[in-house]
């Protein structure tokens, strides 16, 4: 396994229909990271994901290699493409970071952790199933619980509210910072900074 490559996966659903849904915050964060790397996504040769390859580090500092990835499938099928990329780039699970929406965390709040269950999240469930482990990092972007009696599936597959849209860029920026921090500073420092 490669010790110098990180695989950063933004979980979401492909296509313009889903682009602004709460379930797609992982895609938004990888877009921000791609901007920071000065690159844009391109199709991986597997045909199952779009990727950006480069480095995430301060200017003049040689940071580790990073592969940003967005599976080209629906959320509940994410595991196959992630497993294929991990195999292709020789990345072990503990060098994988999944960025995803989290119902049990308030909107505009982040939590970073290593391992754990899937908590009903179809993308995480698919990754755990395909890779045979849940021992990968997660950057969990809070979206909160649906209001009233709205079904969870309808809530995650809906656009952010007008008020949330104003704060969303800040959450995306912070989540991208958390990814960079995980890669460059490790879990403990990242949790101290972002899990407050």
TrEMBL record:
It is found in: Cytoplasm. The record marks 101 as: Stabilizes the basic form of H active site to accept a proton. The keyword Nucleotide-binding does not apply. It catalyses: an N-acyl-L-alpha-aminoacyl-tRNA + H2O = an N-acyl-L-amino acid + a tRNA + H(+). Gene3D superfamilies: Peptidyl-tRNA hydrolase (3.40.50.1470). GO terms for biological process: protein quality control for misfolded or incompletely synthesized proteins; rescue of stalled ribosome. The keyword RNA-binding applies. GO terms for molecular function: peptidyl-tRNA hydrolase activity; tRNA binding. This is Peptidyl-tRNA hydrolase. InterPro entries: Pept_tRNA_hydro (IPR001328), Pept_tRNA_hydro_CS (IPR018171), Pept_tRNA_hydro_sf (IPR036416). Catalyzes the release of premature peptidyl moieties from peptidyl-tRNA molecules trapped in stalled 50S ribosomal subunits, and thus maintains levels of free tRNAs and 50S ribosomes. Hydrolyzes ribosome-free peptidyl-tRNAs (with 1 or more amino acids incorporated), which drop off the ribosome during protein synthesis, or as a result of ribosome stalling. Its main location: cytoplasm. The active site is at residue 23. Belongs to the PTH family. Monomer. The record marks 13 as: Discriminates between blocked and unblocked aminoacyl-tRNA. It is an enzyme of class 3 (hydrolase). TRNA binds at residues 18, 74, 76, 122. GO terms for cellular component: cytoplasm. Keywords: Cytoplasm, Hydrolase, RNA-binding, tRNA-binding. Its EC number is 3.1.1.29.
């Amino acid at each position: 396994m490669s010790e110098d490559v990180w695989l950063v996966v933004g979980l979401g659903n492909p296509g313009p229909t889903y682009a602004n849904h709460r379930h797609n915050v992982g895609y938004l964060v990888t877009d921000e990271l791609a901007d920071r790397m000065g690159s844009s996504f391109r199709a991986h040769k597997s045909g199952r994901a779009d990727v950006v390859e480069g480095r995430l580090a301060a200017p003049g500092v040689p940071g580790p290699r990073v592969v940003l990835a967005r599976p080209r499938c629906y959320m509940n099928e994410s595991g196959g493409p992630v497993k294929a990329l991990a195999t292709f780039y020789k990345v072990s699970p503990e060098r994988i970071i999944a960025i995803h929406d989290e119902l049990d965390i308030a909107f505009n709040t982040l939590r970073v952790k290593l391992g754990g269950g899937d908590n009903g999240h179809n993308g995480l469930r698919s990754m755990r199933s395909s890779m045979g482990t849940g021992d990968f990092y997660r950057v969990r972007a809070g979206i909160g619980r649906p209001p009233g009696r709205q079904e969870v599936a309808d809530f995650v597959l809906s656009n952010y509210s007008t008020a949330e849209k104003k704060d969303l860029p800040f959450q995306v920026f912070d989540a991208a910072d958390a990814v960079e921090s995980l890669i460059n500073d490790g879990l403990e420092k990242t949790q101290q900074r972002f899990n407050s």
